[in-house]
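DM from R.C. (forwarded with permission)

"hey, sorry to bug you on a friday — could you get me a structure for this? deadline for the figure draft is monday and I only need the backbone to look sensible"
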Amino acid sequence: MHKGKMKGNAKGIINAIETGANNARAERINGAIQELKTRGRGYRKTENFRIAILFFNGNLKMFPQNSQ
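My reply, with the result:
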């Protein structure tokens, strides 16, 4: 890695090492969206694609709640 580039990213690198943070969650969501896009073989409207993303990846609670 170029010396200047390493120096500019040093704070982020140290932070990632100390916290153990990474972008795995974002990559998992992106992968799920790409799979949905492939499975759907195209959507006529962007809104339909958006709804499908939210439906399958939105962690919705689809079971009725017991209200007492």
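R.C.: lifesaver. The first helix runs from residue 3 to 8.
me: no worries. The CA atoms of residues 17 and 49 lie 36 Å apart.
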